[in-house]
Design brief:
By secondary structure, this protein is of the alpha+beta class. It has 18 helices and 23 strands. Strands 17, 18, 19, 20, 21 and 22 form a 6-stranded mixed sheet that branches. A 5-stranded parallel sheet has the order 2-1-3-4-5, sandwiched between helices.
């Protein structure tokens, strides 16, 4: 390493001594500045800002000790070594010089080799000082830029993720980042039909890198929810998006949930997050959804499963989602908060507000004032029992009509179309444009998707649902499904929808027929425990759910034909005679327009 050229201030009232030092300095490639006493030394120090000072002690006007003390009192942003070069050789003289601010002491006369070695030594130290100064300045500039970027990034990301739906009265949440940015993402939005979709995502790691990994989920979640895509399709799209843009070592654990209060169902997809829980009014965990899928961004499309788990709730409660930052939050002794801690604090209080406060206080107390090692987040959704309201027709039905205008749709899909068309969202996107059906989009998706998937998976592809119960069964099932669907060359599924009036009720009939050999529908129809809490069977819930949601479900043939009737509404008319007839036919009806019909 080449030493830099230094500016050396030589302070000595003896010209011979000063010239000797000047000659050594110049020969080594440095610049020498001369001063004859302490007063001149201070003036030259201020004007020339030298890198190194050789200071004599005994001088007129102001001695070197006093001059050194004054120089050290001057504000400066760099270290300037002061080397006393004096004929005073007593120990007390050396100590006095060092205590006055000197960094070294050389006794006159000194050999030229010593002077050269000293100058070279300080040149090396000052070179290192310059590097430190440069690095410090670079770090200071970097820190200022980083702080500005963090401030701007935090502002933009908070605006992107602060959806108005997170302020829905059904929702309570917290998100405590381990750093400036949180890798945990909370989203909520209403789908058509007032179904509430929520997402709690936890990107690997924390800080800006984790936050950037999770951000691509927001646009897809909100846009697909607004368009009414079902939860499995949303999960598949989120996985597809992350798989295409994230590096192999990055992924995002996520829990998706759809809460349909009108039809009293909760649908959950959990990939890599702690268990989601439904807490009933008694503080008990009525339902628990473990992670049955890997996180988003790991599996390719063909192996990824968007399969959800749906339950029907018959009492109000709270759906609770959280990231592993909450369950793995450590107290000062290193103990985890754990899923048991989440359950315990939720069960200690009654009511959503109190439960949320109990959980938040519990984790804060557990941390003991220390920050979390990971981002900590939780989302609580209050799920009420909301009986389905009757739909009122403001315009009286004319006496000569006396019924709802019938609407019918018939569709047929052959093997070629089934291989590349995503039938469920395509069909439901059209069907639910009917005004009377829009409020029922969530329930209709659950019914239609189950009937269609049974027809395709079991009727045409011959898949066995029992495979899902095996270790790795979901992935194997989806792999087999993709392979068989790609090879499908024959077969057809016929679908029919009919919206019409049945007495005083508006009903939607759904018919599904496939050309496959059928399946054992009797066993599935007569399985009343399929939707009950504690049933851990990984299959068989679909038909029980359809039966629960529909007024009637009838299978025929070998199970390759099914007809389901869904109750859309009771019809209320202004015509007094028709109103009386409708009231007489409704069990328990009072004739009051505000009557509620229990689903």
């Amino acid at each position: 390493m080449n030493n830099p050229s230094l500016t050396i201030l030589i302070v000595d009232d003896t010209p011979t001594n000063a010239r000797q030092l000047e000659a050594v300095a110049r020969k080594l490639g440095h610049i020498a500045i001369l001063a004859g006493n302490g007063v001149e030394a201070i003036a030259k120090f201020k004007s020339e800002q030298p890198d190194l000072i050789f200071m004599d002690i005994m001088m007129p006007m102001m001695d070197g000790i006093t001059a050194a003390q004054h120089i050290r009192e001057l504000a400066t942003d760099k270290w300037t070594p002061i080397v006393f070069f004096s004929a005073l050789d007593q120990m007390q003289d050396i100590v006095r010089g060092l205590e006055a601010g000197g960094d070294d002491y050389i006794v006159k006369p000194a050999s030229l080799q010593i002077l050269r070695a000293k100058i070279n030594s300080y040149a090396r130290m000052l070179s290192l000082q310059n590097e430190v100064h440069a690095n410090t300045e670079e770090l200071r500039n970097w820190r200022m830029d980083a702080e500005e970027q963090s401030r701007l990034g935090a502002h933009v990301m908070s605006r992107l993720t602060d959806a108005a739906s997170l302020r829905d009265p059904m929702i309570r949440h917290f998100n405590m980042p381990a750093e400036t940015f949180s890798g945990d993402l909370l989203c909520a939005a209403r789908a058509p039909g007032e179904v509430l979709n929520v997402l709690l995502a936890d990107a690997a790691g924390h800080g800006l890198a984790a936050a950037l990994s999770a951000m691509p989920l927001t646009q897809a979640f909100y846009s697909m929810t607004a368009k009414g895509f079902p939860l499995p399709s949303i999960a598949e799209e989120l996985n597809r998006k992350l798989k295409s843009i994230l590096p192999p070592d990055r992924f995002v654990a996520a829990t998706l949930a759809a809460i349909d209060v009108r039809n009293q169902t909760v649908e959950v997809w959990n990939g890599g997050n702690p268990d989601a829980m439904f807490i009933n009014t008694r503080g008990e965990v009525a339902v628990q959804w473990a992670s049955n899928h890997p996180p988003l961004g790991i599996l390719p499309d063909k192996l990824f499963s968007g399969m959800t788990e749906t339950v029907v709730f018959h009492e109000p409660g709270d759906l609770v989602l959280c990231s592993d930052g909450l369950t793995e939050a450590e107290n000062p002794a290193g103990g985890w908060f754990a899923i048991d801690g989440v359950r315990d604090h939720l069960s200690r209080a009654q009511g959503s507000e109190a439960r949320f406060a109990s959980l938040l206080k519990g984790v804060m107390d557990h941390l003991g004032g220390h920050p979390g090692r990971d981002d900590i987040s939780a989302l609580l959704v209050s799920v009420p029992i909301d009986r389905r309201r009757q739909i009122r027709f403001d315009t009286p039905i004319p006496a000569h009509q006396g019924h709802l205008a019938e609407w019918r749709l018939d569709l047929s899909y052959g093997a070629q179309e089934l291989r590349y068309i995503d039938v469920v969202p395509a069909v439901l996107g059209f069907v639910t444009q009917i005004n009377l059906l829009k409020p029922h989009q969530g329930a209709l998706f659950l019914i239609f998707s189950e009937l269609f998937n049974n027809a395709l998976d079991h009727g045409l592809l011959g898949l066995d649902s029992a495979t899902k119960s095996w270790i790795g069964g979901f992935e194997l099932y989806m792999s087999q499904r993709g392979e068989r669907l790609a090879k499908l060359r024959t077969g057809r599924i016929d679908i029919a929808f009919q919206l019409h009036q049945d007495g005083t009720r508006a009903v939607l009939d759904i018919s599904m027929t496939d050309t496959g050999p059928g399946f054992d529908f009797e066993k599935r129809l007569n399985n009343p425990d399929a939707l009950e809490v504690g049933n851990e069977q990984a299959y068989g819930r679909g038909i029980a759910l359809v039966k629960n949601l529909c007024d009637q479900v009838v299978y025929s043939g070998n199970g390759n034909k099914v007809w389901a009737r869904y109750l859309v509404s009771d019809l209320i008319v202004e015509n007094e005679e028709a109103e009386d007839d409708a009231t007489a036919q409704r069990p328990g009806a009072t004739g009051d327009d505000t009557d509620l019909v229990m689903f």
